[in-house]
Amino acid sequence: MQSLPPFLFLFFFFFLLLLSSFLSPSLSSHESDDIEFWCSNTPHPEPCRYYLGRNPYLGAPKDKAQFYKLSLRLALDLTLRAQSHLKRSGPACRRSPEKTAWLDCWKLYANTVLQLNRTLAPPPGAGCTAFDYQTWLSAALTNLQTCPKGFRDTRASAELIGPVVRYNVSDLVSNCLAINRPAAADADRGRFSSWTTFGTRRLLQLSAAADVVVAEDGSGNFRTIKEALDAASKRMQSTRGSKFVIHIKAGVYNEYLQVVSSLSNIVMVGDGIGKTIITGSRSVANGYTTLSSATFSVFGDGFVASGITMSRRVKWPGYHVVRRPSIMRPFTVGRFIAGGSWIPSTGVPFNPSL
Fold it and tell me: I need a labelling partner for 278 at 20 to 30 A (CA). Which of 97, 158, 163, 294 fits?
């Protein structure tokens, strides 16, 4: 039997090699299939496919836990990019309302970076659970959705915030919330959440343990809550990590308060719902953004409050009842904080839509 000529042997060899390349899937197509599978199970598959497919350094997820980590890293990476873009757009804000909206966004994105970082790398020894991660991710999502609203409130040019919003970070964080959906509801259905330590519960129940007392009639250490928070800030410079308890006596406190990121473990105890009242009258109609109009906002870790009414029914100029579903729908629990992806696991009853 005659052997094949050398050139025919080489021809058949390369033909078989080429054929095998078509019949067997390559590594890249295998990774693409994995990304498609995982992303198709998220609330926002399109940005998931787009960004994961264009970030080869992340690799293809092998299981749900790895997919969750990759999604978090991707959300953080894009948040940092959006924040960088936001920084460059600052000088373009010329009107005072635009500058206020821009500053709000800068604070909100900085806090979002903090929330995503702590979700990716929880504090060692803190015993964090999936519920903690959901809380941090929910805060991040609320930040991201509050930012552009401030620009809409001030009727600023869409060119100022449009490039930042186009990173779709909100969709990616919503995906993380859905992936991290806890398997079981919190076992503690009592008055306090399970993450509230026994010591904190006692502090909330015993106002006598307060570090300072606020009373509008002058019978306490301070007349305003703002003064008490300033005192807490000074105290925490020397006693970082310890709780600072503020007892707020019955009264109406017309103040605008913010527990900043550097103020951690603040505990506020009022004299009861409807007795200790913190109220304000700022609104978008009066020229404020959504964030700057808040009567009370919290960025610091470990904040707990009890026995306080944070606001009254608003009556300021510009307030009106909204009856159009198209206006109300973006602010429902399901849309605004992606409640459908995580609230069911807590056992708290809610309505995701109108």
Answer: 97
